[in-house]
Amino acid sequence: MRSPLSCCNRMRTFWDIELRDLRLGYGETVVLENFSAVLPAGKISVILGGSGSGKSTLLRHIIGLARPLSGQILLGGQDLFALPPKAFRRIRRRMGVLFQDGALLGSLTLGENVALPLAEHTRLSPDDIRAIVRHTLFLVNLAGFAGYYPSELSGGMRKRAGLARALVTLPPLLLCDEPTSGLDPVNAAQMDALLLTMKKRFPDMTIVTVSHDMASVRALADHILVLADKTVAYAGDLDGLQKTANPYLRLFLDRAAPREDDGAPCPAAADLDPAVRGRMAEALDSWLESR
Q1: How many CB atoms lie under 10 A from the CB of residue 65?
Q2: Phi and psi for 13 in degrees, rounded to 5?
Q3: What are phi and psi of 32, to 5 degrees?
Q4: Are residues 16 and 44 in contact, defined by beta-carbon separation less than 8 angstroms?
Q5: CA angle 85, 2, 70 (to 5 degrees)
Q6: What is the tens place of the pLDDT at every residue in 15-67?
Q7: DSSP labels for 67-98?
Q8: How many Cβ atoms sit within 10 Å of the Cβ of residue 184?
Q9: For residues 207 and 221, what is the distance between their CA atoms, to the nearest angstrom?
Q10: How far apart are CA 273 and CA 277, in angstroms?
Q11: Distance, CA of 44 to chain centre
Q12: Which of 11, 53, 86, 150 would be 227's cystine partner, CB 3.0–4.6 Å?
């Protein structure tokens, strides 16, 4: 495996991601622990799990926004958090990130948002930057919208704009946090199709997406990592996941609610004191009549 530092200015860099004996969290709160996994180079990996399972926390650590409590995150064989500061910054510049809400700057036009990484980190001429931005917007079906502001775009368009900004530097590693969240089924399917198109156009790119959308997982995933109970519940391909007999994974795959344990006592539901309920009703009536 070649070092990402040896060819960081070229697209042909194969970055697998090795998670070795990781323990992640914030302060004294441990979110994930005692797990190891590999997200393969040149593939689309999907990190799957329920809300609060640690998906976004893991992504934040891979990006380098937070340091593991223990363990290692290796990109192309390089321990990300053992690198000197300059090398650490060089690797992070080669990551493209699509944030969950697009994270576009409202005071900049769409073209200016997409141009930002090039304007901040390269010495390209304004004409070259404009040409690259136009081409990148064309790739995500936003040609003609460079002059629009984020507030003038639909949710799906803002997602695609965020993807354009993530792709504009041709990163070897593309990280997407919930790329289909908040989208209707049609726009979600379009986003999946767009990611697959990008993978065909840039076959050397390693793509990692965080999701809880099984339709998206089935459309995209070459490799799947499922998080549950602070660790890895499954790592492998879609076929293996669909054949699993693991009770938690079956609930997740079949979109079924867990049945209550017949042997466990059912806690009594706490009810509001009738006197408090009466005062609340009177206060609400008074407020409504005063409008």
Answers
A1: 11
A2: -130, 120
A3: -135, 145
A4: no
A5: 50
A6: 789 999 999 988 888 989 988 999 999 999 999 887 778 888 899 999 989 99
A7: --SEEEEEETTEEGGGS-HHHHHHHHHTEEEE
A8: 11
A9: 10
A10: 6
A11: 12
A12: 53
Tokens 């549950």 belong to 228
In residues, how long is the chain? 291
- Phi and psi at residue 82, in whole multiples of 5°? -100, 0
The domains of the chain, with CATH numbers, are 9-94+172-258 (3.40.50.300), 103-170 (no CATH)
Six-digit token string for 68: 């593991």
Do 81 and 89 contact (CB within 8 A), yes or no?
Answer: no
CA-atom Rg of the chain in angstroms: 23
CA pair distance 93, 127, nearest whole angstrom: 22
Q: What is the pTM of this model?
A: 0.80
- The percent of residues in the chain predicted with pLDDT above 90, rounded, is 29
Phi, psi of 159, deg, nearest 5: -60, -45
Q: How many CB atoms lie within 10 A of CB 270?
A: 5
Q: What are phi and psi of 265, to 5 degrees?
A: -65, 140
Which residue, chain included where needed, has tokens 């493209």? Answer: 96
- Residue recorded with tokens 């065909």: 200
> Model confidence over 71-87: pLDDT tens digits?
999 988 889 999 999 88
